[in-house]
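can u pls check wat happens w/ 2-acetamido-2-deoxy-beta-D-glucopyranose
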Amino acid sequence: MQSFDYFIFFIFSLIYYVQFVNCASECINLDISIIQKVEHEGFRREIKWLIETASPTNEVWQESNCKLCLKLDVSNGMFVNPDEIAELNRTQKLQIFLDGNVDIEAPAHEASEHSVYFFLNGLDIARLSVKLPVHLRYQRGQITGGYGKVPLRKPSLLVWCPKHLVTVCGRGLKVEAPCDVAYSQVCVWKNHTYQALFDDVELFVPVGDLDDYPLVSIVSLLLGCAGCVYILSILSTTPL
Ligand SMILES: *[C@@H]1O[C@H](CO)[C@@H](O)[C@H](O)[C@H]1NC(C)=O
Ligand SMILES: *[C@@H]1O[C@H](CO)[C@@H](O)[C@H](O)[C@H]1NC(C)=O
């Protein structure tokens, strides 16, 4: 009888073990593609991302309780306006968190970088779109003027599954980021690879004569005076 008990115990342990391993090894295959478009010209642009999920279905995703977040690092050549972000947060039903201090007056060489996080919670992940207004900063001026180039970084797609035993397939570097829009805590997200259906872009920005306006005017004034003096000297030395 004793050995039979052990046998039953062994069988149950085996079943439990097999089930546990099965659960743990089942991961969600998250297959996402992103299209990016930049609209408008000049200093005010709008970036649009169309995010499409081939797998899993939205129901499976919502049940998994996993979170998706789109993160954009904004380089010092541009900035997002905190007021506009707050407005989008209210009207677009997107939860947006802005990390970093934004000086909207600073020219590019004096500005610091910041990051924008879009928490894509409770949205239909089959197809969703996100837009972000950005402003290009004045570049350090050259007397010749012309155009400066500001590279636009690719957004990172972060995933985090708070429930135990639910994971998203694939390896990805761990990234620390706020858990939610209120920044209640820092969570360890996974940097998930997605299909980027767009090329790297550089935004062209007019290089301001604005920065150097006083210098430019002084130089042109001096050149003008020199011209006058030269002409006068020729006139005065030429015998009439
Ligand atoms: C966005 O709204 C949430 C509340 O829904 C708020 O906690 C958060 O601070 C807002 N973010 C910004 C950038 O205004
Ligand atoms: C995520 O990975 C991509 C490419 O592997 C990289 O360019 C990006 O900087 C990473 N994002 C973060 C937040 O670490």
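The chain has two domains: 27-209, 211-240.
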